[in-house]
Amino acid sequence: MERLQKVIAHAGIASRRKAEELILAGRVKVNGVTMKELGAKAGPKDRVEVDDVPIYQEEPVYFVLYKPRGIISAVTDDKGRKTVVDYFIDVPERIYPVGRLDYDTSGLLLLTNDGAFAQRLTHPKHEVDKVYVAKVKGIADQKKLYPLTKGMRIEGHRLAPARYEILSTDKVAQTSIVSLTIHEGRNHQVKNMFQAIGLPVQKLKREKYGELTLAGLRPGEFRQLSRKEITSLLQQSK
């Protein structure tokens, strides 16, 4: 069940604010009953009408995309840059990304038209592990990475403890490859964490989201999630 104004907006009838005006004006019905309260909700099986015209409610769809670097994690971009939804031109549903990856970060990104699913996975209290692999400037060792495991305070926020694995170091180039597992999703979080311990990120990729991986996908490719994968993500987010 979702708020009625969100259902109307998602169907492309009007913006959410305009949908609220339609509801307050008594122009929206659910199963034949006029709704005039903004707290009203409707589900996929409910008949929603605006000015006595039924609206089409999309079936929920779920995708995993291998986002390339240099792509915006948004539906549109005011600067005209390519966005992640541009890879889905043959998908009729109005999908949007679940969370985001930075412009210069590649890797696993979920997209859906299911608002409850997206909110569930992005809410701070729900803990779904996300695994990033970072190439950092400097030689990573246990002493330098230790603060990551104790929870750091960055930009006024206390972060949950993270897990790491040093994959390789290059003493000649003075770089390291480190895998970092977190379950939060604050803006630039991984980059800020490495910056705080003196290992600035040069390249970043998200390789796992829960149990999902990028197996079988190349940058720019996507696939639909199976029902089993969707259920698993929801269970992990409890």
TrEMBL record:
Organism for this UniProt entry: Enterococcus diestrammenae
Upper taxonomic lineage: Bacteria, Bacillati, Bacillota, Bacilli, Lactobacillales
The organism's place on the tree of life at top rank: Bacteria
Keyword set, alphabetical order: Isomerase, RNA-binding
Record EC number: 5.4.99.-
Family membership: Belongs to the pseudouridine synthase RsuA family.
Domain RNA-binding S4: 2-59
Matching NCBIfam families: pseudouridine synthase
Pfam family, one: S4
Name of the protein this chain belongs to: Pseudouridine synthase
PROSITE patterns in alphabetical order: PSI_RSU, S4
